[in-house]
Amino acid sequence: MMNPAQQQIVTQWNQHMHQLGGQLQQLLHQADGGFQQMIAQNPSDPIPVNNALGAIEHQYKDLSEKLHNSFDEYYDRLCAAGPGEPGHAHMRCAMRAFDRWMEETWQRFENHIHVSHYRAMWPLVQQAMQKPANCNRCGGPLRRATPHKSESITCHACNTVNQVMPETVVATYFGGSPHYFAESSLIDKRTALQKFKDDWDDHCDHEHAADRDRPEEPIERLKQREQMEKAYWTAYAEARVRSEGGTPEDVRTLVEARMKQAFYDEMNLNDVWRKAHGMQGVSEQAEVPPHLRNVDEWGPVGHPQQNPNALEDNWVHEQLLQEALREPERHASLLKQLGYQSAAHRAHVHHTFMRHYEGFLSSPQGQQLVTKAAMRAMNERMKYATAGAASGGLLDPIEGVALSVYASLQAKQASAGVDEFTALLAQHQMDRAKWDRVSKAWLDRMTRDTTGVIATEYAKSFSGGGQFGNMGAAAMDNMSSGQMGLQGPSASAESVSFEKYCEISGAMAAWSKQGKDISAGLHKHFSMTAMDFSNISMYWSQKMMADMSMFETQSQMTEQFEKKYLAMP
Amino acid sequence: MSPVDALNNSISQHAGAIHRSASSSPAGGGPEWDSLMRHYGLAPLDPTERAMIVQAMRLSRGAVPAEVRIAFVGLRVWAQRELDRLRADPAATSLPTFAWTEQRVRDLVERETAAYELSIGIPPAASPPPASPAAPVAPAAPSLASIFANAQETSKEVPWAGMTYKTTTNLNCVHCGGPQEQPADFMCKYCRRPIAGTIKPTA
Q1: Residue A486 touches chain B, beta carbons under 8 Å
Q2: pTM attached to this predicted model
Q3: A52, pLDDT greater than 80
Q4: Which residues in chain B (67-96) have CB-CB distances under 8 A to chain A?
């Protein structure tokens, strides 16, 4: 039971949330007017709306952060007035419900703005799709079959092939609207799902407040959650595929990818779920039977007297296997690849290393070794993932077009004129229609890839162009040679200083809070494109990973520059 | 009188009426100010909030600045709409006063509210101390008005702003100039060489 002073503090906490809620509603109410005006002024251009939405989202996140930052202050007062529980549980549950309300309110608002925009765009899209197309050579009429897609049409009058592309407004509409139209009908489902999860956390908090252990979530409840997640993602995938075109297989693969990320990755680390599915619990897997606890087993790593890197190698194995736990099949296959007979064997080897070196590992040198092992593991993981993706067909060409060709053409498209790019495609035996199909298919595959391999391989071929291409290329060389985090990219490629990199990052953060267009700012203040910055960023990110002390400097300098740019008109 | 001048006159008349009614009102507003708000279709603040502002700002006369600001925001919305209408008329946009009017409308709320505050004896807000180059003071979160203005203006500053792309293109052989006559056939029908000059591997 809370005493009257505590009850008053909890009431004040609720009032504090109520006030923040009022601020959010006021912010969104006022912003809505601005957005409607903006949409009316730019029905065909989503960029200004996206820039403003990004800035309003910062303000929404600031309110949420303000709430979380003030929790401790109220909790300290609660504790000063008496025992922490059950007031603490009341405060936490109220905050959870409030967080959920804030998120739902923001999602509905964001979706409403996007949907309003695409609805306002639709008449222009219809108008553009009805525009007659004429042969570029003789002016004869061309009959379009799918005006929202690129087509190659032979002119009946002069026999010339015309590659006809959708107008910008048509491409914008069909490129962006499917996601938001799909999302708009699903916010209720997503909120219900979040509430289902929160209800369990609330229950656990109340149990804890009553001095009982936090219970394990029962399997029936986990299965119910699985069904809710599946229903949500299926509805999303069906709506999206219906809008943008696709097959039932596209729905299935999208649901599978999202379920893995949103549910199974977490459940495969949950002992209740694991046991219900015939798997050993995570902690059980790491247990060594009492009769083997004093028996050394160095396993495939080898005895430190034979392998001078044995301790580091053991940590590399540990990191790799820990990460793979969320995918039981990959974990089992990795155990074999690394030379272990079973999870129990691996546990025994790790126990042996810990028995002999636990003291050393807590020393500064030991910590250095663990950090280095983590970096090595990151490179190794990428190597395994790429090999797995390649053997599983994830990197196979699409309609004969390899990922590297697709990525390098994408990089060139930004700076090439229409005729130049058409000729470039022809050199690769593609017309616009095929290019659009290939682009969509690679993007779809990337969306469904939960390993990140496609995105990494894409970046390797996308980088290297433009005025700072040498920096991107150096970063990619470093990554390809498995040195990420162990050493930085070659310093000879450093054409933009660290300070300048921090300045640009700070400026970009400021612009995004002010609603300013980042591409415009990069062009105006630094004479560069977003791709140029991406190359610079890849280079410096890898430098920082190889020298962790740079992260703090980066954070301080970026913050200072952000303030400087925020103060600019 | 040009339509731009007419718009400027109207803005001045409305702004003048707001100033007169606001500054001649008793502290916190009065019947005349209320009727002006009603005339413009604007919702007044809650009476308790009005009273709180009068007390906090120690107003001896005049409508509360927050409500006066709301009135100027309404005026700006109307003026902006008129400007947008004029923007479609090249004769209006070519007038030297057009750009000036755009600027006037953009700054209207801040400028007129500040002028009103000064007129009822509220000193202008002190300028913030100059920011130290080493650790500049964080400015307050950007206002909604500035966010929308920034989003609108800077999207026009991207290098590709205003560019139009042709939506129909065709391939002519780089060797002999002959057109492509068969979709997905990238060998020239006339000279039997790659139509775009070369064939590159795709996989």
Answers
A1: no
A2: 0.76
A3: yes
A4: 77, 80, 84
